[in-house]
Amino acid sequence: MKTRRVVAGLLVVALVGGCGVATRAQDAEGPSGPTGGNPTNAPAGPIPVGLEKFYQQRPAWERCGSGSQCATITVPLDYTKPAGDTIELRARRIPARDRSSRIGTLFINPGGPGASGVQFASSAPFSLGAALLRKFDVIGWDPRGVGDSTPVRCLDTEEQDKLLATDGSPDDETEISTLNAENKAFAQACERRSGNLLPHVSTEDAARDIDVLRGIVGDAELNYLGYSYGTFLGATYAELFPKNVGRLVLDGAVDPSKTAEQNNIAQAKGFDVALDAFAEDCAARSCQLGGSKTEVLAAVDKLLTETDAKPLPTGGDRELTQALTVLAVIFPLYQKEAWPQLEEAVANGLEGKGAKLLALADAFTDRTPRGYAGNQNEAIYAVNCLDRQDITSVADAKSKLAKYTAESPRFGPYLLWGSLACANWPVKPTGKPHPIKATGAKPIVVIGTTRDPATPYAWAVGLAGQLDSGVLITRDGDGHTGYKAGNPCVDSAVESYLLQGSAPATDIEC
Fold first, then answer.
1. Which end of the chain offers a freer environment for a tag, N or C, measured as fewer CB atoms within 10 Å?
2. pLDDT tens across 207-246, in order?
3. Number of independent structural domains in the chain
4. For the CA atoms of the chain, what is the radius of gyration?
5. What is the domain extent for residue 328?
6. For 65-76, how does the pLDDT look when each residue is reduced to its tens digit (9 = 90+)?
């Protein structure tokens, strides 16, 4: 789960750490070897009436980088009209290294909404245990509306830069008007460029796509590892297709019963918890921001106040505004190993230098020297605004400002006003908050991290409690998500479940 204006997560953190990513331009190295093609001769599991041609398609898997195969899959634009228009999904497969003992396919989703599963799959050798890579074909795909699948398109690079830099916690009517105008222009651009797609990028639509993918690869049941927003996608799949559930791991869980307001406030407080942990760690190391937690937090707040009053130079054409500073502060909280970068960037900012903070903000939003590498800044709104009713107007935001500010003075207003695009969105929301039980599904493993900045631990507790077959793994730690985060207890439990199919008998604390 990510903020409306923030589009990072496990995927972005992993890629910044140096994992190579094969781009679409590299997807042309010739046909695959003997492991290419469909592992079976026919789709497995039940096929919904009217969708036979989609489940029965045979994608042409071709080499797309070392050890990878890519293919394009066709799905209906509108599942209520399967004979109508279609869209494309792009997928990357990493074949199981031990073909003789292959279990099946493990589908992975990095979150978002809007993060690229195709890119995430290319990092599978770094983000998954060796035993999983031996036994499973690993498939990551770009969900509908994202990346190399049929994408939501709205703004060019200059327009995205302007939107992300606009004051996200306006202090007066002029700033409110400016922010609303930018979000209105954004929503209108999305309608102009992607109007036919916008009504059909809901999480429910994306979950139905997963079942098509499952059928195509010949697996009777879905094996799935989803992170952050990917847990909502996986839980939605389990609700729609409980009998098709195989081994599902939902890491950094989202609570589907919560309203947009509850989510926003909880996430703001989650960032506060993570920043507190950073401040305590920084002070314990006698860092350059202060010798106590209070001094470190005061330094961060001073930077936020100063960049609100006057943007910082960055050595280039773009200035560091307060909105970009917030992104730069939030991003390293996703992974404890990045905390020293946050310390250094804040210290530089207090010296009037914005380059290191801008680099963090750009990493968070996938901004490269050539522009934005993906469309996640746009897709996140398209999905979230459709999935949940959020603020409906400027007046509605104003009426809730005091509550948000009381709950989280530092991040609350930012998350509130970050929903203005949804107030201007051309498509009305179709989803409603509700508990997901997935009655009839096999055991589903849910992972929650106690000081997770983006998906608060309480959400994992909530989802595991709602699911009829939910089992909770608690990771006591920092950072976003729990698997492969340096906790052998979590890793062992997850891999034993995925490899053997036996979920923990009771909840586990790691």
1. C
2. 999 999 999 999 999 999 999 999 999 999 999 999 999 9
3. 2
4. 22
5. 153-187+258-423
6. 888 999 999 999
* Residue 79 domain flag: yes
Within-domain flag for 222? yes
The residue from 148, 308, 390, 452 that is catalytic is 452
Out of 423, 453, 475, a domain closes at 423
Which of 389, 423, 457 is the C-terminal boundary of a domain? 423
**Sequence-ordered list of residues with C-beta below 8 angstroms from that of 384, at least 6 positions apart, any chain:** 4, 113, 260, 390, 422
The yes-or-no answer on residue 434 being catalytic is no
> Are 501 and 490 in the same domain?
yes
DSSP string for residues in 135-185: HEEEEEE--TBSTTSSB-----HHHHHHHHHS-SS--SHHHHHHHHHHHHH
Same domain, 492 and 380: no
Q: Based on the fold, state whether residues 328 and 206 are members of the same structural domain.
A: no
Per-residue confidence band for 25, with pLDDT thresholds at 50, 70 and 90: very low
Closest alpha carbon to 348 in 309, 318, 320: 320
Q: 508 - beta bridge partners? A: 473
Residues 262 and 403 in one domain: yes
- Is residue 409 in a domain? yes
276 and 233, same structural domain? no
Rounded-to-integer distance, Cα 325 and Cα 300, Å: 10
Q: Is residue 21 part of a domain?
A: no
CATH code at position 252: 3.40.50.1820
Among the listed residues 194, 228, 408, 469, the single catalytic one is 228
Q: What is the per-residue DSSP string for 257-323? A: TS-HHHHHHHHHHHHHHHHHHHHHHHHHTT-TT-SSHHHHHHHHHHHHHHHHHSPBP-SSS--B-HH
In the predicted structure, residue 34 carries a pLDDT above the cut 70: no
Contact 56, 42 (CB under 8 A): yes
- What pLDDT is attached to residue 8? 33
Whether the ω angle into residue 113 lies within 30 degrees of 0, i.e. cis, is yes
Residue 35 backbone phi and psi in degrees, to 5: -90, 0
3 state DSSP class of 240: helix
The single residue of 68, 194, 390, 480 carrying the catalytic annotation is 480
Confidence band, pLDDT 50/70/90 cuts, at residue 42:
low
